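As a representative case, we now present a protein record of this kind.
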Amino acid sequence: MHVGSLPSLVIRALRRASGAVTAPRLAVVLLAVALPALFLSSFQAAAQPRTQLTAAQAADQVLTWTADNSMTAYKSVPESATAGPATIVFENSAATGNTTGMTHTLTFDTSTPGYNHDVTLNIIASPFDANGGRHIAQVNLTPGKYRYYCAIPGHGQMTGELVVTEGGGEDTTAPQVSAQVAGDQDADGNYVGAATVTVSASDTESGVDTVEYALDGGEFAAYSAPVSVNQVGAHTVTFRATDKAGNTSPVDSVEFTVVAPQEEDTTPPEVTGEVTGDQDADGNYVGTATVTVTASDTGSGVDTVEYSLDGQPFATYTQPLSVNQPGAHTVTFRATDKAGNTSPVDSVEFTVAASQEEDTTPPQVSAQLSGEQDSAGNYVGSATVMISVSDTESGVATVEYSLDGGPYTEYPSPVSVTQAGAHTLSYRATDKAGNTSPVATLRFTVVAPEDDTTLPQVSAALTGTQDWAWNYVGSATVKLTASDVGSGLDTVEYSLDGQPFATYTQPLSVNQPGAHTLSYRATDKAGNMAVGTAKFMIVEAGGE
């Protein structure tokens, strides 16, 4: 509207007033018209003329605002619209409840961040203006939010938002939602002490209605402020958002770990052990007992849990322990947290009684080779054989092995084989019920190290009847013994009284009276040779 002179406004107001014009009534009319007119006289430059549109000009979409005597709120407003052309109707008249002649504006905000600023609209309406307080404008709306307000001084509470959605139909697009985790992090990316999760959501059509989150699989709750998580451990925050059209975003999540400040955690974990299984009348566990160890730590969190069965070295606990060996048992256990605090060692004691059923199953037995191997798979220098055996019923009684066809020997510990050459090791086990496993066999080859520089060990032993002068009476027997811990023996040889060396295969008997010298030597497979000499005297039997 165009703002005229103050006298013309007053004259029109008086003409519209019905009945006698009393002094109080005249004062009200003058005040309702004069004060806004004074404000609008300075506002006129920014106001745009608004005229009635023809039917051809009007858009299909009509948005209507009305005002009355209130200075704090419009009487009626639209809440949403569709992007595209729209007809704006603003009526501030006696028909809408304005009985005082108060002037109002419908002004679109073009400066506040967060709103659309592409529509410049400033309609000034009064019951006493040329249009009787009803004004129409044509605009083009884009998706987003518009802020509108009344620009008359003292009417600052008259404000609101218009949400504009995409044209072409109902809003079927879910909001966009994301989350960010913040806080102090250690070198591994864990959050020290606490982590704060901030969820952000936006919707360019009907607008965001609700944002929800759930912590570690719990129930969804309304999100109103950043979520602080200080419980030590791994966490998952899931989140979603719903717009005003009822569209809900897919559930998304962020995962993170909170650790306790190391300098503050001085409390060891709490650890307990529980024994379960079938029990007889005496409380013994029949056949087997299962020990479950549970640990918790409210500070830095549990790092390791360990157990020991019947005094054996501690081992890492990963699952419940099954004990089926008949007899009394003790399982000790402990736990260490991530700050290095270890709980006191605790224990459970129990007895396993053998099942009444007869044991007819032999033990399970296996063997494993270890040692340095060459490219052909041969063991260089030595090979170690370790035999493992178990029996789930009566228990293992004996374990035996045989090397290279020799007699069976009890297996007390891993067997080291250093003799170069091909070898066969057979093994078996017998349980306490007398069941013996089938014989199993390992075949392997030991070769000498290429850098063997150690001489063999070789010695001679003389036996026979001796006289008072230590002479051998009638004959003497010479036995040679040789060994090599490196590449292994290749040959053992001897020479009697300067004769050529011959291969030694068995003890040598000498009966020729007189002084004798026996030279001997041993050579290993690496070519190292060791030598020795034995001297002795043989006298005839019955001689002086």
Remarks:
- Residues 62 and 202 are 27 Å apart (CA to CA).
- The helical segments are 6-16, 23-43.
- The radius of gyration is 53 Å.
